[in-house]
Design goal:
- This protein is α/β, with parallel strands linked by helices.
- The chain has one domain: TIM Barrel, CATH 3.20.20.
- The chain is 39% helix and 15% strand.
- The chain has 15 helices and 15 strands.
- It has helices at residues 20-23, 36-41, 59-73, 84-87, 97-112, 128-132, 139-156, 169-179, 190-212, 234-256, 264-268, 281-285, 341-354, 383-401, 444-458; strands at 2-4, 13-17, 77-81, 116-122, 162-167, 217-222, 227-229, 291-295, 300-304, 322-325, 361-365, 406-412, 431-434, 439-442, 468-470.
- The protein has an eight-stranded parallel beta barrel with strand order 2-3-4-5-6-8-11-12. A three-stranded mixed β-sheet has the order 7-9-10, covered by helices on one side.
- Helix 7 (139-156) packs parallel to helix 9.
- The longest helix has 23 residues, at 190-212.
- It binds 5-hydroxymethyl-3,4-dihydroxypiperidine.
């Protein structure tokens, strides 16, 4: 079958993304301190099969091979994260030179391959020593984040243009401090809401430092969700509103509208007591950004699930009286996530409709976990992932046609990697990693993405007619 590639605008950035703890390994090398994910993954019962990131993809040692894969892929940019405990093993104090050296080498390797680095400062690996002092529940962590940002920006800022302060603060605050399925594994109420707020303060602090150090492109990555109601019944609509507050408004309202969500009292009642806020926070958090990173995987639908217990006994910030439902009837990835590409277009257009002043968008993650197998010919024929990427890029192109300024797209992920509490069972890579041998095998999706990029380069600027692809 021959179908057109999605066509993205001239100058569009194609990239792939990874994160430190998910790929680096070398957990105790060159002075790296322990992170909350080391502690969590080493705690029995926390991750599938007891998996840890101790070795992961051994990227710390194999980064030249991985950058060579990126070069052959032809990407414009590569998004990686810096592990805070490599830079400050206990989260404060002077830089660990060997930690900075690693990211320096990686940056130079990328530039040598003509790939622009996009650096995420925080992708969930908080130094354990800071968690021992309260972690994101405390404002001090947001202050320490500013010091850490300065150390990284002063070292890499001459070569890195694109900076992402935080990745998916929803997961840090709520998966980590309210659901407990991510590190540090807490199930709390007001402290989780405090964590959400302190993450925003940390973001604001980092933006300030990045501006002071001359950074050119500064943004934050959010996993904003398209949240829908299971039915038009008022109770379900209210449930979706509460879920939308939890997933989206906590971040978007302070970042893009200069206010806290009007719906927080109906969502959390007394848990949202605001005790963690200070005068001036909104101005800090809402400082202008050059872009917003959006990570999208699947839409969410909620029905009302009325509480039976009194409000005072509710303890977790994710306990908001909602029940996820799955009306999609579509294919699901091995994560159990429904595949609904058109939801991506709706999400992006809806975001701009709600926040007309939204900065330009980069899609900083999108991809799918699939049940990959190695075929007798040694290849990985991951047609489901190819279709997923094709259809989601088509959805991005539709959003651009509808007026959303999307500047680039990073596939999640370059490599199969440590998928947090799911361990190594979920494979998101466009390159397969054999964890016994560390052999890398580019999958069919890698080759598809390479042809897509090549096709865009080859397109006549004057006539960007769809390039035919074989599927
Ligand atoms: O692997 C994660 C990544 O770390 C953050 N965004 C979602 C991905 C898939 O679950």
């Amino acid at each position: 079958m021959s179908t057109p590639f999605p066509v993205l605008p001239r100058g569009f950035t194609f990239g792939t993304a990874t994160a430190s703890y998910q790929i680096e390994g070398a957990h105790d090398e060159d002075g790296r301190g322990p992170s909350i994910w080391d502690t969590f993954s080493h705690t029995p019962g926390r991750t599938k099969d007891g998996a840890t990131g101790d070795t992961a993809c051994d990227h710390y040692h194999r980064y030249p091979e991985d950058v060579a894969l990126l070069r052959d892929l032809g990407v414009d940019s590569y998004r990686f994260s810096v592990a805070w405990p490599r830079i400050q093993p206990t989260g404060t104090g002077p830089a660990n030179a060997k930690g900075l050296d690693f990211y320096d080498r990686l940056t130079d390797e990328l530039l040598g391959a003509e790939i622009a680095p996009a650096v995420t400062l925080y992708h969930w690996d908080l130094p354990q020593a800071l968690e021992d002092l309260g972690g994101w529940r405390t404002r001090e962590t947001a202050e320490h984040f500013a010091e850490y940002t300065r150390l990284v920006a002063e070292r890499l800022g001459d070569r890195v243009a694109r900076w992402i302060t935080l990745n998916e603060p929803f997961c840090t605050a709520f998966s980590g401090y309210a659901e407990g399925r991510h590190a540090p594994g807490a199930q709390e109420g007001t402290p989780a809401l405090a964590a959400a707020h302190h993450l925003l303060v940390a973001h604001g602090n980092a933006v300030r430092v990045l501006r002071e150090t001359g950074a050119r492109e500064v943004g934050i990555t959010l996993n904003i969700d398209l949240v829908e109601a299971a039915s038009p019944a008022p109770a379900d609509v209210a449930a979706a509103r509460r879920a939308g507050t939890l997933h989206n408004d906590v971040w978007t309202e302070p970042l893009f509208a200069g206010r806290y969500p009007a719906t927080e009292a109906e969502t959390w009642g007394a848990l949202a007591d605001g005790s963690y806020r200070e005068d001036g926070d909104l101005a800090l958090i809402g400082a202008p950004l050059d872009f917003v990173g959006i990570n999208f995987y699947r839409p969410l639908t909620f029905a009302d699930a009325p509480h039976t217990e009194p409000e005072e006994s509710r303890r977790s910030a994710v306990d908001i009286g909602v029940r996820p439902v799955d009306p999609y009837g579509s294919r699901h990835t091995t994560m159990g996530w429904p595949v609904v590409p058109e939801a991506f277009t709706t999400l992006l257009t809806g975001l701009v409709a709600r926040y007309p002043e939204l900065p330009p968008v980069y899609i900083t993650e999108n991809g799918s976990a699939e049940a990959d197998t190695v075929a007798p010919d040694g290849a990985v024929h991951d047609q489901d992932r190819v279709t997923y990427l094709h259809d989601h890029l088509t959805a991005v192109a539709a959003a651009i046609d509808a007026g959303v300024e999307v500047r680039g797209y990073y596939v999640w992920s370059l490599l199969d990697n440590f998928e947090w509490a799911h361990g190594y069972r979920q494979r998101f890579g466009i390159v397969r990693v054999d964890y016994d041998t560390q052999k890398r095998t580019p999958k069919d999706s890698y080759h598809w993405f390479r042809r897509l990029i090549e096709g865009h380069r080859a397109m006549d600027d004057a006539d960007r007619a769809p390039v035919q692809e074989s599927r």
